[in-house]
Amino acid sequence: MNDKVFEPLDSGVVPRFAGMPTFMRLPVATPQDVDVALIGVPFDGGTTNRPGTRHGPREIRNQSSLTRRVHHVTGISPYDLVRVGDCGDTPINPLDLAASMESITRYYSGVRQAGAVPLTVGGDHLISLPILRGLVDKGPVGLIHFDAHSDTFDSFFGSRYNHATPFRRAVEEGLLDPKRTVQIGLRGAISDAANFDYAREHGIRLIFIEEFDERGAKDVMAEARAIVGDLPTYVSFDIDVLDPSIAPGTGTPEIGGITTREAQKMLRLLGGLDIVGADLVEVSPPFDPSGATALTAATIMFELLCVMAQSISDRKKKRN
Amino acid sequence: MNDKVFEPLDSGVVPRFAGMPTFMRLPVATPQDVDVALIGVPFDGGTTNRPGTRHGPREIRNQSSLTRRVHHVTGISPYDLVRVGDCGDTPINPLDLAASMESITRYYSGVRQAGAVPLTVGGDHLISLPILRGLVDKGPVGLIHFDAHSDTFDSFFGSRYNHATPFRRAVEEGLLDPKRTVQIGLRGAISDAANFDYAREHGIRLIFIEEFDERGAKDVMAEARAIVGDLPTYVSFDIDVLDPSIAPGTGTPEIGGITTREAQKMLRLLGGLDIVGADLVEVSPPFDPSGATALTAATIMFELLCVMAQSISDRKKKRN
Amino acid sequence: MNDKVFEPLDSGVVPRFAGMPTFMRLPVATPQDVDVALIGVPFDGGTTNRPGTRHGPREIRNQSSLTRRVHHVTGISPYDLVRVGDCGDTPINPLDLAASMESITRYYSGVRQAGAVPLTVGGDHLISLPILRGLVDKGPVGLIHFDAHSDTFDSFFGSRYNHATPFRRAVEEGLLDPKRTVQIGLRGAISDAANFDYAREHGIRLIFIEEFDERGAKDVMAEARAIVGDLPTYVSFDIDVLDPSIAPGTGTPEIGGITTREAQKMLRLLGGLDIVGADLVEVSPPFDPSGATALTAATIMFELLCVMAQSISDRKKKRN
Amino acid sequence: MNDKVFEPLDSGVVPRFAGMPTFMRLPVATPQDVDVALIGVPFDGGTTNRPGTRHGPREIRNQSSLTRRVHHVTGISPYDLVRVGDCGDTPINPLDLAASMESITRYYSGVRQAGAVPLTVGGDHLISLPILRGLVDKGPVGLIHFDAHSDTFDSFFGSRYNHATPFRRAVEEGLLDPKRTVQIGLRGAISDAANFDYAREHGIRLIFIEEFDERGAKDVMAEARAIVGDLPTYVSFDIDVLDPSIAPGTGTPEIGGITTREAQKMLRLLGGLDIVGADLVEVSPPFDPSGATALTAATIMFELLCVMAQSISDRKKKRN
Amino acid sequence: MNDKVFEPLDSGVVPRFAGMPTFMRLPVATPQDVDVALIGVPFDGGTTNRPGTRHGPREIRNQSSLTRRVHHVTGISPYDLVRVGDCGDTPINPLDLAASMESITRYYSGVRQAGAVPLTVGGDHLISLPILRGLVDKGPVGLIHFDAHSDTFDSFFGSRYNHATPFRRAVEEGLLDPKRTVQIGLRGAISDAANFDYAREHGIRLIFIEEFDERGAKDVMAEARAIVGDLPTYVSFDIDVLDPSIAPGTGTPEIGGITTREAQKMLRLLGGLDIVGADLVEVSPPFDPSGATALTAATIMFELLCVMAQSISDRKKKRN
Amino acid sequence: MNDKVFEPLDSGVVPRFAGMPTFMRLPVATPQDVDVALIGVPFDGGTTNRPGTRHGPREIRNQSSLTRRVHHVTGISPYDLVRVGDCGDTPINPLDLAASMESITRYYSGVRQAGAVPLTVGGDHLISLPILRGLVDKGPVGLIHFDAHSDTFDSFFGSRYNHATPFRRAVEEGLLDPKRTVQIGLRGAISDAANFDYAREHGIRLIFIEEFDERGAKDVMAEARAIVGDLPTYVSFDIDVLDPSIAPGTGTPEIGGITTREAQKMLRLLGGLDIVGADLVEVSPPFDPSGATALTAATIMFELLCVMAQSISDRKKKRN
């Protein structure tokens, strides 16, 4: 612990375009320094079609210069509640998937031991698996998962570890409780009618876009909260849950997605949950020349940070 | 008829970025081979402002590599119900509008004689006229027409054949029954207050975006289905019916359009109609550098293909 | 006054891509010639982050070639009701903020004296201040302000004149009546929880996107109309009120914005108000490579023009 | 003739980004007003592959805002020597090639009768034919032709009038003297070994890039000047003579082209010739998102203008 | 062998924008069908920084629609000399580097056994190694290698197989004779002063851009020809040997590269060598939004094809 | 002074796409820490046309991740010779030109007092003036200035401080010795024939592109070295000296520029001069969507760093 001030740079002193881009213009930190650790995992070795999410953390850092301090709905700044810093990128090896998964796992064990709650930026969705391996130590966690895809394939191209399989592996490995798992925003044609069978058979709640469209954000989130309950829960936000007109810079875009207004409504309804970590994945800057997807991602991160900070702060107070 | 398997390439064997891009990664075929013929008409000689739809079929083939086999709502694959193949592009002459219209007409006569139902990708909207000329032989068909524009001008620049006139010509030529025609999503300023007079006087039902916005997809489609009834019906989808934030790559974008979620809802309500053909037009790749419009178009094609396949399959069964 | 015909070029004679781009393809004019003066203010010296709105007027002129004559809902052309012309750009000095503000103010005094109602295209939002200084002579006006941001900061980087402060200055200078001011579409994190205090303390009505989302366009506009009443009212439309997926080309994009369908609904409900002027600001072409934002802006201008023309025409008739 | 000042706007008073873009920021004029008439021909109906040159004149006008008054090598301003103005675009019909050719021809007859020398911006290369038809009245002219392609095909897609045939037609019609014609910069594979036979048989001098590369700009231009001699000569500059890294925005790019330094050297060696007109063609803005090709074209125009102005001025003096 | 005609589609019948894009618009073929096999290897698993070359083959096919039949310098068409076809893409596994290398090797063994000479499009530069493994059976071949980088690292990120190591591995494995190897166009800072030691110690001739700049294409190629002599030689063209202004779409651009005019001169001087295969690698479409790099690559392929076809044809005649 | 290692991150451990982008992947430092201080000045308040160079430092940092350690011609790493670090951006005020100039001046006084030699990245060219004000304390320095423009205007828009005037002001203020000043690469039309008078009258040596083209890099640099001699010399590199095909991302592009091969040759001939500082200016990322200009700038920075490091190291040795 140290005396560092964990505040974003003052945009009335250092213009938003100046300086080196860290997440949210926060100081560089170690997990030991902070309550919430902003971490990049620049790895896309699990990608089966269009690559590029390895460039995600850098560009999201860049665009996060446009974020500000205080949430306009609550009037509260996460930086007033907890210490938040940019912990940099985890070690990875772009030529070795297995080694990368190990070093990611090791890094998140360290985060857990430091007592920080990680808010991660990918990278492709495979990274959720080594993150959970590093993070989960006392039995499976719940999951609120925003995505166009279920990511519960058994394998792809004969490989069990890729961005279509992380949550199946996580269930198999006892990291994830499928009965406390809900996936929201699913849509798009599938390669096989049986693609959702595993999820259904294990009790994962699948909320397709059609159901979401009928019920709306509030109702869906009430159910999601009931599913995960008060126990430790992970949040995973795949940027492709958003409509491709909003977030084109991703590897597997699916039309007919949710809007940012809907996404923000949902994220604000995460308040009070016991969030043990969150990630935002699948932003691919080479397919996002305008930076719009990365800017959206940075703002989604801020929404996640706000609910995480509130929850951590509340629990701290309760403990005291 | 032959032993060819009319299935998309398996994306777990041949990655989506590999191989030559055919529509939906399907085999190359002739209309004789298939029940549904996917056809390109790379012609934009009827365009009055921004050109480029001649490049539409190629880029939509390219982006259609991202589509999959099974519809996530019905759980049914069109490829299990009917034979579908990529029949390539019709002959056209980029320097001769009249010759192009003739060769398109001739091509679609062949499609009709082969007994295949065409699902066409343009090209500008003028192509609907020669398609209907080739396709319609037993009296006028009905039309469900998704578009920002009515395309029932009498002439433009003194020319009676361009992308603002196809449906007026089709009514005049007895190819289209105006009383069984409905246009959905109309909007945008017009050059003359009388622009919709022809359509109104001949009984075409005009559903502007404002009415659509009030009533919603379900209600509007119930009326549309009633209008066309059980008789043979053509479906024409101009990509500019979608909002330009979703489909920027088109020649005459109009803000305030429908979303893909709304479009998908409507297209899924075409089920059971006697669809004798469909087209998707006005995708202009030079104005679509990211490929987003073409990807949207490919997914719309898949939605159309699903309802067409179901309907053809049902009718086949009934006949047996 | 002269014999000039104040009509857009006929798009059936001069194609939309031909000729020099004026606003709406209208004749070049002076404020003396017209009832509604379309004016550019190519100034971005008040911008604190991403620059480029100095290029706004030119690109919006370019994209306005796609607009047409007659509103499709009312069936009325503004050009049938009043004289409208492109009065060019105001003088500005890109190296001198104070001098630019003075020359803008002087220009708008001239517009007022000529009896024309200005519809301005920026430029950054600071320009609203010198416009109001030139335009307002008989006591403060009301304001309907569409924006993601309140723009009522006291200062930024120690400067009292920049695109975050115009409306606070306008209230202080007696140009704007805060009790007859409503801001719609506000959202996005803020740098300080006190950012909205000035507005609230002075009676400006703040309608955040969350409230807008609950109530809808009609209800919100009913309140907005009640707030400004029958007295002289200015309308300011910051393009960043729209969602960045629709209008990416702006300096301070905020996700979760309003759609063009919502915006158009609201603008059409301005009818009958005593609009003394309007502006559309913050379009930054360097961040809008596709031109989509400028095309959207041009169409928003047309919507504003239609309500302004109707209102001016009605008042003229009443006076006669 | 009138009192108008034919000077570009002063860039120290009106910033380059302000105002409506005319060619070189010059006043709008008629051919009667000026010695050199800058004219746009926004027509691409002769294009056989990638369209879009119809948008050329507008975007070149836009980018020409970056040009200045005085040539840095000679220290002379063309605007001091002759009157130059922007005469707008010729009438064309985007749906009718024959009608467009007629109206272009008619327009250039008028230019000739007005005594102005035209400097035209296309449009595709077919436009050189109707320009020459309108311009040439006293026997065939010579031609210095910068291009990657010879454009002396007999026909394409069965059509004798397209952008691959203008100079063959011009020879056949007695507009062009093939013995006084030189083509510089030719390169790129051809569809048939016989493609250059017509040119060779009729005495057109073909200078391929390989010969140009060996000899250099000075030597080649000495020969070109000898070929056309003192008699009336037309200059045609197809932007695709430049390397595609410099001028990507064109329909038929060929790698291995000339650089702008080489082009400028050659153009400056046109001095003193009896240039009866010049054109710059094949700039296609939809394939030039950055505007680099249009900016290059505008600067090439300025180089052409300088030699034309000097030559006209010298001849005027001689006559006096 | 069969009766298929191995000619590109006639661009006067099927426009260049129409139809499915194969390499050079040639028929789809198997290695058994042809003398020269055009093959794609869509694999970028060996890439250490910016990915995307997996998309290379498809986009180069697309852009190769702009190539033509007959070389303009020799007046000879490769298609008149030998049979050439598009053999599609090799099998690869985007998630498994080792498996991909094996399947590539296996594929090229088949090509060798079929007696076809392969002209390959990558993919990243690692693919040269499995290609050589499959192709070389009777002792090491020579290599003419155009590249900014030597690609003779021992390892990167602890991995011996990646796009920085293929030619060291090839020497070690006896596939490549370092004394008959020449690398042309090398440049750019290096991570370690020892980076070129291996190449130098084993007798590879390194021609840096500075030497090339002094001596010119002819002189350098005379030496290169002397180095490889009459024995079997492979040609490898990394697109990054070209200047990034010409070929921006690549993962490791280095400024100060060779021009296309220089490249074409060099490639034409490969005539008569015993070329057993060639590849063109490192085109990354996600970093090439305009397609300029892919178009350049397609034209380079045509140059390679011309010298290969001539050489094969000459050897065939000699044997007869 | 401290124990920090002033080495770039090892690209075989931390991939180039990972981590926060500092210049050359170097540690963050203060001027006190280093021999060569890499500094950003994100200010474009002196820009008269297209803005955006305020974004230059960040994007050049980003692209500099692609640079490496050792110069391939000399085999020497600047990081082995001297300590180099990223000192961040100077304070500036985007709304106040005078205040920004003062804070830049103050910052560079500090750099001078710390004994570091600054290598600066702009920002627009005005920044050279406050840099020189801060840096020069013992009489005027010499200047080698690479630029398309002389930047010796007296004023623009009535302002004496903008990016067209810095070197005139520097001469007037006794910071620059005009007789020891040489400008290389000048070109492009000028607004007034007298534009170069000041420079000529004061003995500045102007080398236009035409002279450069005749004489070549070596000869020109021999003269440049003679002009500045052994006395303290500043180097200023305006990215627009390069051809716009290479460096499109700048505010005032001029065709016909120098190539990177020519630029690198010239920069390498700066060796041994007494360089007291250098800057690289006018990179405007909003006009450089591909990042090509910023990557070029980063590599130019590395070339400058190498000669500066060598020179500083040599002088240090001499002193010892």
Automatic annotation (TrEMBL), chains A, B, C, D, E, F:
Mn(2+) binds at H125, D147, H149, D151, D238, D240. PANTHER family: ARGINASE/AGMATINASE, GUANIDINO ACID HYDROLASE, MITOCHONDRIAL. It comes from the Bacteria. Its cofactor is Mn(2+). NCBIfam families: agmatinase (TIGR01230). Belongs to the arginase family. Agmatinase subfamily. Binds 2 manganese ions per subunit. Keywords: Hydrolase, Manganese, Metal-binding. GO terms for molecular function: agmatinase activity; metal ion binding. GO terms for biological process: putrescine biosynthetic process from arginine, via agmatine. Gene3D superfamilies: Ureohydrolase domain. This is Guanidinopropionase.
